[in-house]
Design a protein that fits this description.
Blueprint (H helix, E strand, L loop, with lengths): L1 H17 L11 E4 L4 E3 L4 E4 L1 E4 L9 E4 L18 E4 L2 E2 L12 E3 L11 E3 L8 E6 L9 E8 L8 E2 L27 H38 L1
Parallel strand pairs: 2-11, 3-12
Antiparallel strand pairs: 1-4, 3-9, 5-6, 5-10, 6-7, 8-9, 10-11
Length: 228
């Protein structure tokens, strides 16, 4: 019995040693946001992409989203500037939230463990236009913040939810079937360049065949006459 108990104890110790352990990343994590502006129309829902590379579980850390160009309220004696979104103590902290963003922002809480700290803003307005700063104060890295630019353009069509930079409508590739340039419905001369070049080339080739055939026939007739 003692040998059996000892064997069980040894087996349990071996099992504990075999359990996988969570290894910290060898390189320091960096906060990375979109380097291109996020374009949206008024009324759109947008996602400001931001994540940690390599991925780090940030559920126990503070995540701050703010507008760095926003000036403090002159009436505030402490010159405080509110947050667009503040995540602290594993939940949103609304105490310092900018009033215009109340009920309109959210983090993807299920993805915080994978280092996804992107911010969703619903029903954007022109007042939301500007730079946003994603910041993790206690991240052990110098690259603990990133700036993302949101452009709210009333000339854009509503797209629903935007989470990647959009191209200007004036730069869109025109439909090859409608013959327009995508700006104001006018025909684009570039669309007709290729057909004209092809037709011209075919015409020249046909003319060359006809002329070449004519001279071959004349040469053949001359040979016949000289042989007679």
């Amino acid at each position: 019995m003692e040998a059996h108990a000892g064997g069980a104890t040894e087996a349990s110790a071996n099992e504990k040693m075999a359990e996988p352990t969570l290894l910290l990343p060898l390189c320091k994590p960096r906060v990375i946001g979109s380097s291109l502006p996020i374009l949206a129309a008024p009324g759109d829902d947008v996602i400001l992409p931001c994540h940690l590379d390599p991925p780090v579980d940030v559920r126990g850390l503070t995540v701050e989203w703010s507008k760095p160009d926003l000036k403090p309220d002159p009436s505030d004696r402490l010159s405080r500037v509110g947050y667009v979104h503040l995540y602290r103590d594993k939940r949103e902290d609304p105490d310092m939230k900018i009033p215009s963003y109340v009920g309109r922002t959210a983090l993807f809480t299920d993805d915080l463990k994978r280092g996804n700290i992107s911010l969703k803003i619903v029903n954007v307005t022109h007042a939301d236009d500007g730079r946003y700063r994603c910041f993790i104060p206690k991240l052990r890295s110098k690259a603990n913040a990133s700036i993302i630019r949101l452009v709210v353009d009333p000339n854009l069509l509503r797209t629903g939810t935007t989470e990647a930079p959009l191209r200007d409508r004036g730069l869109q590739t025109p439909d090859p079937e409608d013959g327009t340039d995508g700006k104001d419905g006018r025909s684009s001369p570039n669309i007709w360049i290729l057909p004209v070049v092809v037709c011209s080339s075919l015409s020249l080739a046909a003319a060359a065949v006809v002329v070449g055939g004519y001279f071959l026939i004349r040469r053949h007739r001359k040979r016949e006459v000289s042989q007679k």
